[in-house]
Amino acid sequence: MSEDLRVAVVGLGKMGAGIARNIQKAGFPLTVYNRTASKTQPFVEAGATMVASAREAAARAEVVLTSLMGDDSVKAVVEGSEGVLAGLSPGAVHVGTSTISPACATELARLHAAHGSHYVAAPVLGRPDVAEAGELRTFVAGDEDAIARCSALFEAYSQMVVPVGREPSVANAVKISINYMVASVIELMGQVYTFGEKSGIGAPYLALIMKTLFPQPQIQEYAERIQARNFEPGGFAMTGGLKDVDLFLKAAGDLHVALPYANIVRDKLLIAVAHGMEERDWSGIYEITRQQAGLD
């Protein structure tokens, strides 16, 4: 075993499964819990212990890592008689990798402080294929000693770990800011491709523009999806994008920061979901831009 730190992973969806696989490959003693128990089977076959509740997972671990959809799902797993806090030992650490609101991160830190445990906000940047490859970028904030105890764990599934201070809310503010910028670039590229199609700019020239202005590989993939109108399978689904833009709008509203571009993106995501596109990649909002411009 490469590490003796006992780890539990709660939430084995597309992101959580990739994270858990890399933790297991690194040799950490692993406990797993997922609401749909069948998703734990590959990990059990590889030597992990399956439990029936988040409380049991926490009771077996020094560090509990959660990978869930959003504020409500995280709080539901943490609180209550079968939640993480009910099983977590004083001094243990909860690592939250989910994209949640800064306000929720602050509330989780408060709950853990009252319990005598630690909350480390550690939202990740990357899609499921990046999680599977162990190449996520992780933004961490919280107690310095708790972060240090988890350093080898972060390295097991991260290409880069970026400390952003002691306040957990800051890590989540960073994450939703990045997602907002990506969503805005997707919208901008869709507008330009729509204009290009109607004005006669050839696709090769548009691709050159995108490669020149947005050389980052992930953004290039979105540009290629838009050019090809290929949004299935979705790397990041419309529903996830809508949730994240809503998080950013709420956080910005609390701070009285106007973000008109966020409202444009949110409206297109809503329209796309209403048209049955919820599982397509969120760059598929390009189809709504095309429709609004009168293109088939």
C-alpha geometry: elongated
- Secondary-structure arrangement, i.e. CATH architecture of the largest domain: 3-Layer(aba) Sandwich
Cα-to-Cα separation, first versus last residue: 57 Å
Along the chain, the helix and strand elements come as EHEHEHEHHEHEEHEHHEHHHHHH
Oligomer: single chain
Task: Just give the CATH class of the largest domain.
Answer: Alpha Beta
Low-confidence blocks of residues: none
Into how many domains do the coordinates divide? 2
Structural overview:
The protein is an alpha/beta fold. It has 2 domains: 160 residues, Rossmann fold (3-Layer(aba) Sandwich); 121 residues, Orthogonal Bundle (N-(1-d-carboxylethyl)-l-norvaline Dehydrogenase, domain 2). The protein is built from 15 helices and 9 strands. It has a 6-stranded parallel beta sheet with strand order 3-2-1-4-5-6. Strands 7-8-9 form a 3-stranded mixed beta sheet. Helix 10 packs parallel to helix 12, helix 10 packs across helix 15 and helix 13 packs antiparallel against helix 14. The longest helix has 32 residues. It is elongated, with a radius of gyration of 20 Å. It starts with 6 loop residues before the first strand and ends with a helix.
